[in-house]
Amino acid sequence: MIKHHELHCFDYVNHDYASVREALLADPLAIFRAATTRGARDAANSELRVVVGAMELAAEIEIDIVSTWPSRSPLGKPAQAITLTWKSPRRPGWFPTMSATLTCYALSSTETELDFDGTYDPPLGVFGAAIDAVALHEFAERAVANFVKEVASYLREEIGRRKSARQHDGIVAHPVV
Fold this sequence. Notes:
Layout: E1 5-13, H1 17-26, H2 28-37, E2 46-52, E3 55-72, E4 78-87, E5 98-108, E6 111-120, H3 125-170
Antiparallel strand pairs: 1-6, 2-3, 3-4, 4-5, 5-6
Helix pairs in contact: 1-3, 2-3
């Protein structure tokens, strides 16, 4: 029997939870697609890329949001959870389908954690389990780490841009007399 493989990754966004939650929920699917391609936000299908030694592995993926719901942090504070799946649309039997939850919650008044918990089953039965043991699991770990890092980076930039725009809008020009 092939067992589920668990993946866990986290990153931080140096902004308050309310701002991170608002930015994340504005369009999570677009943010997730952008994160998989490092900036190609409008791609209908995205590609995960991971460098393993001298090789770069890539798999075209399709992300779906299953649900979003208010949750609780490990310390019982408010959190936001987003359940997602990703899979290869071209060769679903060759690549695992990932099921995961990305949760964001406040660590302090100025820092929010993004916490990714996911599982996948290696494809191709026993043969796939052997490939997973040699390379696929490392690919999955790095892909998830890249994904979470890119989501956090996007949120930092987007929230910073929003705050700058609000500050700019609040500036009133005074004529020099």
